[in-house]
Amino acid sequence: MGGITTEEALCLVLQHTPVIQEKEQIQIANISGRVLAEDVKTVFDNPPFHRSPIDGYACRAADLTDASKEQPVCLTVLREIDAGDYSEEEVLSGQAVRIMTGAAIPPGCDCCVRQEDTDYGEEIVQIYKAERQWSNYCFKGEDFKAGQVLLKAGRELGFVEAGVLAGMGVSKVSVYRRPRIAVLTTGNEVAQPGEPLAPGKIYDINQKLLAARLLELGAELTEVRSVPDEPEQMAEALKKAAKEADLLVTTGAVSVGKKDIMHESLALIGAERVFWGIQVKPGMPTLFSDYAGIPVMSLSGNPFSALVITELLLRPMLAKMMRKSSLELVRVKGTLADAFGKPSPGRRFVRAYWENGVFHLPEGLNSNGVLASMVGCNCLLDVPAGSGALKPGDPAEAILL
Ligand SMILES: Nc1nc2c(c(=O)[nH]1)N[C@H]1C(S)=C(S)[C@@H](COP(=O)(O)OP(=O)(O)OC[C@H]3O[C@@H](n4cnc5c(N)ncnc54)[C@H](O)[C@@H]3O)O[C@H]1N2
Ligand code: MOO
């Protein structure tokens, strides 16, 4: 098997991968999967006031030292404070306020009593329980203090951060823009889903397969389309796509056939070949070029080959472009539940389902042109070069999808 190793390929690919620098402001409800571009600092204490975590009465703990069901302590109820109300009137010894969960505790009080530990009195309340100072008392600033950097630039954002930002009163944040990718598939044999299928034609799987995965990984798609197997047309399509995109992805026409037009198309636009051929199955004829600073990843046309190299190379590229370490490949170990009959003279990736340390192989064919048996698979077994047929119980490793 010719070509460089996958590690060498990844290294070269990353050398030609730009990190996106441009920033944009987005609403915090849309931040999931984005990367924060600037530190976000708090400008007030939260909660902004001492507050009650219960429905009951706020008063002074020193008044309650002897309180019990048998010998209740009676306090005069000054007022009711509901959540959202605010009172600055000091509560003195012998006094209490009726207070609701989330309401601001007035000055003078240093504890709250649950209403279940009282007689629910409206003007005079009988308290049945002693409370320690600061019990049932949430302090101003216990969530965060003014001047704290709660979220640092570079953090990957999700629902927790959306909630934290909302609590800070922030409605928009600055994030790095998404990488823009164009996907161009080749092949005079491909028809688009929804169209009738003429003899000799197949549906274009790669467009949708790649578009769905790249969107899932966090990219923006500038265009996704099929280009006829004509070098001039593909050259034009690449030139046009490069005006909008940070990365170009093509599928098909990279092998050695007469219609393998990617080589000529890339030569026509003056793209520099970085490598052609990786010692891996599937995806062996993968071609990678640099077109005036824009990386061009040309995947082989077989859908499973395109899928494997998307995970092995495109995903780490996106991790770098977006500064998202969560996209880096995760490896798992386990044992095989099923046999895999083919020997692997070179490194091979095989579709599988991993659960509780066990790898299950799907029923259908594990062939590069077969995609249906991928349904339900969640990993790619990484079978080292020089392996023979694999049998149940053999140890194995995989990358998670
Ligand atoms: N004489 C040789 N023939 C082949 C070699 C070789 O070394 N010598 N390598 C084989 C290997 S390995 C692969 S992989 C393929 C790679 O071919 P290409 O990348 O040039 O891709 P195509 O020939 O265009 O297509 C391969 C296969 O995939 C189907 N295809 C293409 N595009 C799509 C699409 N968008 N959706 C669904 N299916 C697609 C296409 O019809 C072919 O069946 O070359 C081997 N040949
Ligand atoms: O390398 Mo090809 O991608 O075996 O199918």
UniProtKB/TrEMBL annotation:
Keyword Magnesium: yes
One CC-aspect GO term: cytosol
Pathway assigned to this chain's UniProt record: Cofactor biosynthesis; molybdopterin biosynthesis
Matches recorded under InterPro entries: MoaB/Mog-like_dom_sf, MoaB/Mog_dom, MoeA-like, MoeA_C_domain_IV, MoeA_C_domain_IV_sf, MoeA_linker/N, MoeA_linker/N_sf
Biological role: Catalyzes the insertion of molybdate into adenylated molybdopterin with the concomitant release of AMP.
Family in the record: Belongs to the MoeA family.
Stated name of the protein: Molybdopterin molybdenumtransferase
Source organism: Anaerosacchariphilus hominis
Lineage start: Bacteria, Bacillati, Bacillota, Clostridia, Lachnospirales
